[in-house]
Amino acid sequence: MRTELVKITPSMAQAMLGKNVNNRNLSERAVTLLVEAMKAGDWQITHQGIAFYEDGSLADGQHRLAAIIRFGHPVSMMVTRGLPKDVAMTIDSGRRRSLIDGVKISGAASWMEAKHIGLVPIITYPRRLTDGEKVNFLISMKPHVEFATQCFVSNRRNLTSSIVHAGIAMAHYHKVDEVSLIRFGEVFLNGIMSDPTEKVIIFAREYFLSNTNGGDVDKHEKYLKLQRAIQAFNDGENLKRLATPKDSIYKADGLF
After folding, report:
1. Among 12, 57, 139, 206, whose Cα sits 20 to 30 Å from the Cα of 123?
2. What is the pLDDT of residue 105?
3. Sign (positive/negative) of CA torsion 59, 130, 120, 246?
4. How far apart are CA 1 and CA 230, in angstroms?
5. What predicted TM-score, i.e. pTM, was given to this entire model?
6. Does domain 2-90 sit in CATH 3.90.1530?
7. pLDDT tens for residues 177-191?
8. Minimal CA–CA distance to 141: which of 115, 179, 173?
9. What's 24's DSSP letter?
């Protein structure tokens, strides 16, 4: 068995894929994520790469090779040849390391937690960020995402923390009053209002509790409604109903 670093061109990747005689079905999502990482400059050389069995057939790396072809530029990876066929059952059989695991181990941001990662796709929808872009975004937004996750802590079913964290973080970034945001989080969580202007928080809360769909579009609508509720509460508006704005009120333009 031997391993070497190889700069794999798209044509080399195509030839290597030709040796893919017995492998898993290709995941378009996995390939797309790899291509996005390559385009963003987030691809890094590790011990993981391309592997071939003793008979020359492809053992591992079909998604990486497909991504190189789609990317259209050479990418350096470790290439291992001569794997015995009896190791096939152990390839990719371990638990996949999560993004937050990688962040903690690398020391890139020791403060970062899974709850911080969870709010990123809510803010950046419909764009999907690479793992590197997610980490960079959170680092740039550290005081705002930390405030949001400290301000609203909930395990209550359907009062989705990631959406509330995202809304509060972006409002905080846009300099909405901290006392107002803390109070918003309290009423949203416990459902107890003490002033007519807090009725809009109850509107948002009731919408979350009655609309339990978890798709990306549904989450986005909740996020927009939540932003409108935060704006109305902070401005002292006495709304009769909570409408969905056409676009984000607290925008993330230029942040990712």
Report:
1. 206
2. 63
3. negative
4. 60
5. 0.69
6. yes
7. 999 999 999 999 999
8. 173
9. P
Question: Where do we find the tokens 């740039």?
Answer: 140
> What integer best gives the mean pLDDT of the chain?
90
Helix (H) or strand (E) holding 185: helix 178-190
What are the C-alpha distances in Å from 46 to residues 4, 68, 76, 87, 214?
12, 16, 10, 20, 35
Containing 7, the helix (H) or strand (E) segment is strand 2-8
List of the chain residues with pLDDT < 70 = 23-24, 88-97, 105-106
Closest CA to 221 of 243, 254, 200: 243
CB 10 within 8 A of CB 69: yes
Q: Which strands, in side-by-side order, build the sheet including 2-8?
A: 2-8, 75-83, 50-53, 58-60
Instruction: Give CA separation, 158 vs 152, 189, 205, 216, 224, in Å.
Output: 14, 11, 9, 15, 16
- Which residue in this structure is represented by tokens 């962040």? 103
Cα–Cα distance measured from residue 234 to residue 219, given in angstroms and rounded to the nearest whole number? 22
Where are any strands of DSSP class E within 9-103? 50-53, 58-60, 75-83
Which part of the chain is CATH 3.90.1530?
2-90
**Among candidates 192, 254, 203, 255, which has minimal Cα distance to 226?**
203
